[in-house]
Amino acid sequence: MTAPLHQLGVAELGRALRAKTVSSTELTQHLLARVAAAKDLGAFLHVDEDYALARAKDADARLARGEAGALIGVPLAHKDIFVTRDMPTTAGSRMLEGYLSPFDATVVDRLNAAGTVSLGKLNCDEFAMGSATENSAYFKALNPWDRTRVPGGSSGGSAVAVAAGLVPATTGTDTGGSIRQPASFSGITGIKPTYGVCSRYGMIAFASSLDQAGVMARSAEDCALLLSAMSGFDERDATSVQQPPQDFHARMLAAREGATAAQPLKGLRIGLPKEFFPAALSTDVNGAVRAGLAELEKLGATLVDVSLPRTELAIPVYYIIAPAEASSNLSRFDGVKFGHRAKDYSNLIDMYEKTRAEGFGAEVKRRIMIGSYVLSHGYYDAYYLQAQKLRRMIADDFQQAFQQCDLIAGPVAPTVAWKQGEGADDPVKVYLADIFTLPGSLAGLPGMSVPVGLGEGGMPVGLQLLGNYFQEGTLLHAAHALQQATDWHRLTPAGV
Amino acid sequence: MALTHDDVSRIAKLARLELSGDEQAALLPQLNGFFSIVEQMSAVDTSGVDPLYTPLSAVQEVALRLREDRVTETDQRALNQRSAPAVEDGLFLVPKVIE
């Protein structure tokens, strides 16, 4: 093989493993050494070398028996939001320091069964609340393109690990953009499927009607391979979609009707919501996104103007609904059944209040406060109920737009990754930067971030693609076609 | 309508969060800053619109799924309690609540 092992993607590694040109043990050792050398990036909260090597040995035995699964022996790592039986799970919070889950999340369980080798647990914003991974209670994650900048969040560790060549793919979760935005900031490919496609069982809950698991990797093809293995109906999740497992890789490859070799996307209509291209959009992001769109046009796609008139309203709607659900979900952290308990207290209520004061960080407290307020007597109708009604109007706007197009495209974020510490004083300013990812999240639609070049300071820019419900295949097909024709997804930070 | 210090104390009580004076002082302007961007919501006429509690119900009937009523879980008490702060004889311990 010519390229170093850590530059290869999931599909290539799978082929090399099955051809026995490399063993999972060799590959795992190589990546573990890289993880150890890149400790200062803050990507991992927990690494378990012995566990990883034991799993790699199992995978090598399966490969030796001639098993042909696409993911057997492929190393990865999980966002520390997924509970794992064999490693501690913290959700990036002091509240869960040292917590050992009695079971594996369904997503983890399925990827284990597929033969993947987990190296460890990845850093993230506390309980997935944040856009920069600066809210991790343990340490920040640094953007490998420029260590003075944030990698995005909340799945920041997941993005850093892939961008820095520590693992070829990672799991992430997306509640309001937490896969798409760090993928964009770190120059990798990420997909959040339709709400309900991946089981939420064992995914530590933030906002249950929005939370969805997905994949972060270096190509659409690698995303498709992992998503096929980790998705599908799970009776342990009440909102899991009841449909048989899907082969997203086959759907990604399936030729469109009327497609030609030169124009694989012929007939594909891509809608550009005018609200996703406001005057305030930074010129570097606009330029890179337009360049990506021009390539899609060359591949046969047609660009059409559409409108999502309530895009700006998605910010308050999301920041009412998500904290409301969070305040309810996080009430389970009471110092009784698991997690931190305060040392000194005078009675039960005092124990709850001190335990939660000590265990939660500032952003989590802020969101619990917002959520408790909007759900409280006298305010519920004006805030929570009104937000849920607006959420339907936002979802209906998408259905209107999808009458004119097959996919929707725009930027993932208004700017490239910002400097560490820039969002610290003004939480509302950071919320506003989620404007382009929140509408799709509220509607529960599938979305991707695909690299389309570099902007200010040589930082990566992602193109956001949104599909209608269950159109992951169309999304992956378009992203794959783009990546067959361009090299943006192969750009890596210096030294990787 | 702006929140007051009393509101912040009351919400903290509801949320079972002990907040220091400094934390409360920092939160008040942050919460008010947040609710200033929320105000634009109330201007929209949503009469006759059904709330969207779960996203897929935007396009399809979403029925609450019930599983068959049979025993599916085995006894995992020891495993479930291994991360509990205080247990005794298989029970979770809390401060005395009945005198």
Automatic annotation (TrEMBL), chain B:
Q: What's a Pfam family this protein contains?
A: GatC
Its EC number is 6.3.5.-
The family database entries (Gene3D superfamilies) matched by this protein are listed as: Glu-tRNAGln amidotransferase C subunit, N-terminal domain (1.10.20.60)
Family matches, as InterPro entries: Asp/Glu-ADT_sf_sub_c (IPR036113), GatC (IPR003837)
Question: Does the record bear Transcription in its keywords?
Answer: no
| Molecular function terms, GO-annotated | asparaginyl-tRNA synthase (glutamine-hydrolyzing) activity; ATP binding; glutaminyl-tRNA synthase (glutamine-hydrolyzing) activity; transferase activity
Going by the record, the broad EC class of this enzyme is ligase
Q: What does the UniProt record say this protein does?
A: Allows the formation of correctly charged Asn-tRNA(Asn) or Gln-tRNA(Gln) through the transamidation of misacylated Asp-tRNA(Asn) or Glu-tRNA(Gln) in organisms which lack either or both of asparaginyl-tRNA or glutaminyl-tRNA synthetases. The reaction takes place in the presence of glutamine and ATP through an activated phospho-Asp-tRNA(Asn) or phospho-Glu-tRNA(Gln).
- What is this protein called in UniProt? Aspartyl/glutamyl-tRNA(Asn/Gln) amidotransferase subunit C
**What is the organism of origin for this protein?**
Roseateles chitinivorans
Q: Which gene encodes it?
A: gatC
